[in-house]
């Protein structure tokens, strides 16, 4: 019963022109076009393409700005700070060893998350039709 209501709701949203948020966010995390899911959203490490190479969706309206960097710092900080404390209390490694491991970990995780979070923010804006994404071209 609930599943049928869910499908009716999805159908109503599509008729109203709204876009599904969670599928778009998953596509954005994979750095793919939020519309088709197969075209690459980024043309370099962080540069968003103006249009999708597959479906020609206009992606030039995005306004990601500092959002991806802020979220990256938030996530990396909340993951690494407790791990740093746990590692220090449990094993008492040499300070240089501890610093080296966590510096490499922080940089690696930050470089991994930054383009994916940017893709998610662009996909969120696309799904919510923000900043001109809802206007027909």
- Please identify the structural class as seen in this structure: mainly alpha
Main beta-sheet strand count, sense and barrel state = none
Query: Helix coverage percent of residues?
Result: 55-70%
Mean pLDDT: 89
Element-by-element helix/strand order: HHHH
Whole-number total of structural domains: 1
Distance between the termini: 39 Å
Rg estimate, integer Å? 19 Å
Number of strands: 0
Q: Which residue ranges are poorly predicted, with pLDDT under 50 across at least 5 consecutive positions?
A: 4-15
Q: How big a fraction of the residues is strand?
A: under 5%
Specify the number of helices. Answer: 4
Transmembrane segments: 69-90, 96-114
InterPro entries: DUF983
Pfam family, one: DUF983
Keywords: Membrane, Transmembrane, Transmembrane helix
Strand and helix map with partners:
Elements: H1 2-16, H2 21-29, H3 67-91, H4 95-127
Helix pairs in contact: 2-4, 3-4
Structure description:
The chain is an all-alpha fold. It has one domain (19-127). Helix content is 60%, strand content 0%. The protein contains four helices and no strands. α2 crosses α4 (95-127) and α3 runs antiparallel to α4. The longest helix has 33 residues, at 95-127. Residues 4-15 have low confidence and may be disordered.
């Amino acid at each position: 019963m609930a599943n049928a209501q869910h499908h009716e709701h999805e159908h109503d949203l599509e008729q109203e022109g709204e876009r599904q948020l969670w599928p778009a966010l998953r596509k954005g995390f994979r750095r793919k076009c939020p519309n088709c899911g197969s075209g690459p959203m980024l043309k370099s490490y962080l540069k968003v393409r103006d249009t999708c190479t597959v479906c020609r969706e206009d992606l030039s309206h995005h306004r990601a700005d500092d959002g991806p960097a802020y979220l990256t710092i938030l996530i990396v900080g909340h993951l690494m700070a407790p791990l740093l404390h746990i590692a220090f209390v449990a094993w008492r490694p040499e300070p240089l060893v501890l610093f080296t491991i966590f510096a490499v970990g922080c940089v690696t995780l930050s470089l991994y998350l930054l383009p994916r979070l940017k893709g998610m923010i662009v996909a969120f804006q696309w799904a919510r039709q923000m900043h001109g994404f809802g206007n027909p071209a």
